[in-house]
Amino acid sequence: MGYFKRYTHLAPLAFLRFAFGALMFAALLRSLINGWVYELYIQPSFHFSFYSFEWVTPLGEWTYALWGVAMLSALLVCVGYLYRLSIIVFTLAFTYIELMDVAYYLNHYYFVSVLGIALCWLPAAHYGSVDAWLGRAKSADEMPRWVVDLPKVLVSFLYLFAGLAKMNSDWLIEAQPLKMWLPSRYDLPILGGLVDEPWLPYAFAWFGMIYDSTIWIFLWWKRTRKFAYITVIIFHTLTAIFFPAIGVFPFVMIVITLSFFDAPWQRLLGKIWPSAPRKYHEYRSWNPPLAKLILPAFVAWQFFFPMRSQLYPDELFWTEEGFRFSWRVMLMEKSGATEFKVVDGKTGEYDWVNPSSYLNRTQEKQMSFQPDLILQFAHFLGNKYRQAGMQNPEVYVRSAVSLNARESQPIIDESVNLMSVKDGWGHKEWITEWNDEISGW
Prior knowledge:
Strand order of the largest sheet: 4-3-5
Radius of gyration: 24 Å
Largest sheet: 3 strands, antiparallel
Number of helices: 17
Helix content: 40-55%
Structural class: mainly alpha
Number of strands: 5
Order of helices and strands: EHHHHHHEHHHHHHHHHEEHHE
Strand content: 5-15%
Number of domains: 2
């Protein structure tokens, strides 16, 4: 219990708030400028829902307003003005954006929501913020150590589970999918000449596993922290160069990981926005009982929830049961093709439907190999035909899915009427059995 009685300077948490807000504003602005709001959320006629969050849907042209709210609140989080309201609004707005379509799911979107939820409960605006400068929040130089350490724990979970996920036979023994991905980067200056070297995918695979599994330990240890951070810069810079499709995530990790340091330069925020007069200074008195109840439960959830995939019986990469929200980053190359057959159960007449008639390229690509998305789209087609007058529509899928360069096989049997299948948290027995095996976590 001695740890929970220790105190430390609040500057690292204030810096995290500042960096988090600035990065999120930049990321949202980038997507707006590139036209992705319209392309991904407004233009498509159909969107895939997360199970139990079917009520979260794009807002049409109002999606731009939602984007604006998220950007403005991110900027206010950055400077620490109306902080508590701003971080709550940002977290709700960003999480809503994330939940609007499963096809665009990325681990770093989830991490933003996780970190945002934690920051809703932490006193990140009590130092180096406009609120502290104006006296809206009681300023403080020190806080309980666990308050500053909690975001580091969340970052550590991300690295830990990403490392465990790489401890599988495809990644370490076959160097897949890196063996497929790296040759496509032949156009890179200097590094492009190495991509055909047979040892390179194995070097990347083993280094990636060791890095993710251990880097968080060396970041916690003061003696190795500086060296560890140099490897953070190298690792994530190489990731950004070789895999640009991952977006801003490498840069987010490079900046957010700075919160492990307790450095004098972090206290510059206290000079930019100095504290209000002493009568507003609360020193170490921050001790809200609700936060002390909520945050430990939240941290425990973040530790156990990624392990849920171990409860399902079949190959994780094939069924993807428990795959999302478990920090399995860039572990597989899965591709597929699907065609849907809508049958009138009364007359036997049928239509073949091409998904591209309703989905954009990203949606169709992701749907073609994810069973739950195939099921959602099948129900969408069945309901559409029912509304058009078909009394008893049945929907079947013809699929061919390849995992890490293996031969394609159907992921759902063509004889299964998907209109009679419902999604849920349990094991999806309607997914075909995979004809291979991947050993490991």
